[in-house]
Amino acid sequence: MPPSDFAKANIDEIVEQLTLDEAISLTAGVGFWHTHAIERLGVPAVKVSDGPNGIRGNHFFMGTPAKCLPSSTALGATWDPEVVEEVGLKLLAPEAKLRAASLVLAPTSNIQRNPLGGRSFESFSEDPYLSGIISASYVNGVQKGGIGATIKHFVGNDKEDDRQGYDSIISERALREIYLLPFMLTQKYAAPWAIMTAYNRVNGVHVAEDPFLLKQVLRNEWKYKGLIMSDWFGMYSVDHGIKAGLDLEMPGINKWRTLDLVNRTIQARKLTPRDIKDRARVVLELVKKCAQGAPEILDGDGEERTVELESDKLLMRRIASESIVLLKNDNVLPLKPEGGAIKKIAVVGGNAKAQVLSGGGSAALKASYFISPYDGIKAALEPHGVEVTFSEGARAYKTLPTLEWDLETETGERGWIGTWHTHESDDSMTALDQPFIAPRLVDETRIFISTSYPKGITKRWTMRLKGYLKPREKDTNFEFGLIAAGRAKLWVDGQLVIDNWTRQRRGEAFFGSGSQEETGVYLLKAGKKHEIYVEYCNVRAPADGDEDEAIMDSNPGVRLGGAEVANADDLLSEAVKLASEADAVIAVVGLNADWETEGNDRRTLALPGRTDELVEKVAKVNSKTVVVTQAGSAITLPWLDSVAAVVHAWYLGNATGDAIADVLFGKQNPSGKLSLTFPKRLEDVPSHGHFGSENGKVRYAEDLFVGYKHYHHRNIEPLFPFGFGLSYTTFSLSNLQLSAPVIDHATSSFSLTATLSITNTGPVTGSEVAQLYVSYPETSELTHAPLQLRAFKKVKDLQPGETREVKLELDKYAVSYWNDRYQTWAVENGEYEIKVGNSSVSKDLTLVQRFVVKDGFEWRGI
User: Fold this and answer.
1) Radius of gyration of the chain (CA)
2) Which of 30, 310, 389, 560 allows an S-S link to 252, with CB 3.0 to 4.6 Å?
3) Which residues does UniProt assign to the signal peptide (predicted)?
4) Does the domain made of 407-564 have the CATH classification 3.20.20.70?
5) pLDDT cut 70: percent of the chain above it
6) What are phi and psi of 209, to 5 degrees?
């Protein structure tokens, strides 16, 4: 029978028929991306795929070209649940089907506790309410498309360094009111099919083994019925996780839940067969949902495909432009190239031509297409005859840029030729010259092989890569960089240029398995095609302090980068000269996937290298300097007062350049609002001083005062507040009115409606977000944040002079706090204050009303 017939399966009957070994097999994955099939009982395997900002598919190495969407911080900055649901339904779910995946490993709903967090770009917001509502919309969109969503990382995984060992020490109230709340809201409003546990401990216990979080909170209080899975290699025992209620261990490589270990644990009476079948039942229920949601996937051929519709491109462009936040505008934007007022524009900055798609790690994918900021700007200006000049100005990369667009094969194809080679034996370091399989074209120079090496090859194997650098117009010194998760050497024209084989320095690349980048310089001759040859072996080289020559069985990889050697002063001078000759300057600067990535945290909020100096110098010679910043979280802008305009563009995916151009030249009126606070300095960040792991402990000492709540509490002025964003028009908010609060003790419910009017008082059509914040009674004996976001509404496409009425509905979440004395949610008696405006700072919260709760109550669940 076809696998999709499992949609009609009787789970009780199948659980009854399972042998113990079959049940054990179901509780852990197979390979890197699949659940276990039980062919005897017609149980199909389900494929999962990473998905925070796009669906990569099975392969990091030579992956299927895919749509890369704006980062989660960008989606959060839309403040638009409707558009995020549209992303899930119209883009993510169809992409999952094209990758033959039934379950998406997204969204990420951790809190941006600190912008230094390596995966901050993957989470929606520093605010739990905004994060929860956007997350629920994401899940609803994906699941309406027949694909399951997996909300992650449950919970307290808010930094990357030491993530598998650190203990997040969080007070009960902060845990409930800040860190669990996004997951709670997503469960209430969307019911995700799966939840992925975090790597870390919370209050002493690894989450994957924590009966309090998994059984008491998820299963008992929230009545969660979906699957609970581990993060990849996020299990640390056999019996603890199974007893705690973790249904599925992922992946199936180097796993704990082998037949041998689990059976031995059962024999030791640490587990019972019933424990195993309870976990297997939930896996089967997920497989049934997948068969019901998208049966064509299970009946399909399993091949991954790319389909690029023009309607999808337009949608991606619109979503990207709607997430962009206008931070400053001294009447210079939008730039108007029409009519000849602007004849020349200088584009400068390290990000202008770079392929900056998203943050790094599991969010990374191979984009089906990419529009750079430079290309988007140039395309927008070409019809108007505007000259566009360019200078990098200051280099922004952490590791040398990859070279996939600079290499070609002997026959002129883009890329190089790779061959796999077995060794004389599993223990030998001697590779055979004869390729193990036929040579293949490789169009990447960041080659994260992961588990995509050939089946049947020896345990130790070698990969050889050969191509040719496209000829240069003039003689130039070229610096190469080589990183290996394993060991590697680089030869140019037969000369050894880099030895990262004999001895290494350990680094952070390839999920912490890679070396540091080793570099070497070679003189490239004008007009010559230089031969590039890399030999890589999946056995790590010894390093000082770590002589272990481990085999990279799950994270092998090699990365070749390079750039022409340039004098930093000359680059700056060139950019300044071009800026002085132009009618306006667009500086495109920021971070990239090297700086913001899974696996490690940032060390500073500053932009890299001499970027800040570049912006200062071009602004001095051109008063019309517009800065476009790219970063998944907050950065410092020491030159802010010197420039005419600042546009924050996050990571925008495939449509980056077109979306930026749409905003710069007025095709799109910016409507994004910051999903996190931009501090003036690192020391102002709430968790500063206790963000790191100290002897394995991360103390959440800021407690309830996360994000903007800290800035209000300490009366610290941020650089840009949470919820802030300008427009090319202006808005007026007025006439705030509240209905009488309604409390139903029988159902433990609360409701109140706030109505207000929004008027477009400016010259162009625009969209505005009404943000409602609640202050709890001053009579309370407990500490509460001064303001908490509890409702918002994006009012779209208001015409000049148009007024619309907005309704904001409040429920029990708007007035509840966690009572740690009685282990319950509680609503206090007293007078509550509501403030409504267009950002979180007091001067923007112009509408104020109050209401009284006379008869408070307690509640549990969701």
Assistant:
1) 27
2) 30
3) none
4) no
5) 100
6) -125, 15
Give residues with Cβ within 8 angstroms of 317, minimum separation 6: 655, 658, 659, 662
- Bridge partners of 489, per DSSP, are 499, 535
Q: Report yes or no: 324 and 655 within 8 Å, Cβ to Cβ.
A: no
Q: Residue 414, class by beta-carbon neighbours within 10 Å (0-12 exposed, 13-18 middle, 19+ buried)? A: middle
Residue 616 host element (H or E) = helix 611-621
Cis omega before residue 800 (within 30°)? no
| CATH top class, domain 323-397+567-670 | alpha beta
Give the architecture-level CATH label for domain 731-859: Sandwich (2.60)
How far apart CA 88 and CA 83 sit, in angstroms, is 9
Looking at residue 226, the DSSP 8-state letter turns out to be S
* Mean of pLDDT values over 424-449: 96
Residues sharing a CB contact under 8 Å with residue 358, sequence separation 6 or more, in sequence order = 53, 54, 68, 71, 121, 364, 365, 593, 632, 651, 653
Write out the catalytic residue numbers.
Answer: 231
**Confidence at residue 72, expressed as pLDDT on a 0 to 100 scale:** 98
Q: What are phi and psi of 782, to 5 degrees?
A: -105, 160
- Is the separation of the CB atoms in 671 and 727 below 8 Å? yes
Residue 547 CB-density burial (10 A; 0-12 exposed, 13-18 middle, 19+ buried)? exposed
Is the pTM for the entire model greater than 0.85? yes
- Going by pLDDT thresholds of 50, 70 and 90, the confidence category of residue 697 is very high
Just give the CATH number of 3-299: 3.20.20.300
Domain ranges of the chain: 3-299, 323-397+567-670, 407-564, 731-859
What is the per-residue burial (b if ≥16 Cβ within 10 Å, else e) of 100-128?
bbbbbbbbbbbbbbbbbbbbbbbbbbbbb
Q: Residue 341: is its pLDDT beyond 90?
A: no
| CA 862/CA 845 separation, integer angstroms | 29
**pLDDT tens digit string along 199-222?**
999 999 999 999 999 999 999 999
Instruction: List all residues 6 or more positions away from 327 whose beta carbon is below 8 Å from its beta carbon.
Output: 646, 647, 648, 678, 720, 724, 725, 726
